[in-house]
Amino acid sequence: MTTNLSDCLLPTTRSFLDEDDLSCGTDREVEDLIEKYSGGRSEATGEPDEESVPTPETQALLAKEVALLQLRKHWDPKRFYKSMGHEEKLDPRRFQLGTVIEAPHEYYTGERLPRRARKSRIIEEVLADPRARGYVKRRFRAVQQRAQRIAEASKLRRRRSSKTVQRRRRRS
Fold first, then answer.
1. Rounded to an integer, what distance in angstroms lies between the CA atom of residue 76 and that of residue 60?
2. How far apart are CA 112 and CA 123, in angstroms?
3. How far is the C-alpha of 22 from the C-alpha of 54, rounded, in Å?
4. What pLDDT does 93 receive?
5. Three-state secondary structure string covering the chain
6. Model confidence over 68-117: pLDDT tens digits?
7. Rg of the chain (C-alpha set)
8. Residues 100-126, buried b or exposed e (16+ Cβ, 10 A)?
9. What's the N-to-C CA distance of the chain in angstroms?
10. Alpha-carbon distance 163 to 114, whole Å?
């Protein structure tokens, strides 16, 4: 029995399945090997499958961190952060966290955090930064004052409109 050599090659890794007798085995074995070597990626697009992305155990805390990341442009007005995308909403159940590893040349830069200033969570880092806390407090107060002024104005508007309605009723 002669087997075509290209039939025994995996499409993603281009390695032999069985080098001894060049037999490919059953279709199920080939599918299992393709799934094993593709690393949870779909065959058509090469993108990771949704099922392969793990769902975090501590979902509530990590979902808060993702929400905080989405609001990071409001921490510092003088710093630009790239958008996380407005078209599609980020699913808080499906995401992954990673660790940023600094390059050796970044050791002497001004943005480097010393080891004792580093925290395990993003929320802790933001709350520990006095500049960020001060800015957030100022902005929160400004938003609250603006909302209070708007509420008072609408309250006055409702009073005035109710008085005019009462006057019209009296006249008729």
1. 25
2. 18
3. 37
4. 64
5. CCCCHHHHECCCCCCECCCCCCCCCCHHHHHHHHHHHHCCECCCCCCECHHHCCCCCCHHHHHHHHHHHHCHHHCCCCCCCCCCCCCCCCCCCCCCCCCCCCCHHHCCCCCCCCHHHCCCCHHHHHHHCHHHHHHHHHHHHHHHHHHHHHHHHHHHHHHHHHHHHHHHHHHC
6. 888 887 777 788 888 777 656 666 666 677 777 888 888 888 777 788 88
7. 30
8. eeeeeeeeeeeeeeeeeeeeeebeeeb
9. 105
10. 64
Two tokens, residue 47: 């993108």
Residues whose CB is less than 8 angstroms from the CB of residue 122 and which lie 6 or more positions away in sequence, other chains included:
65, 68, 69
CA 6 to chain centre: 41
User: Would you place residue 142 in the very low, low, confident or very high pLDDT band (cuts 50, 70, 90)?
Assistant: very high
Polymer length of the chain: 172
Q: What is the pLDDT of residue 81?
A: 81
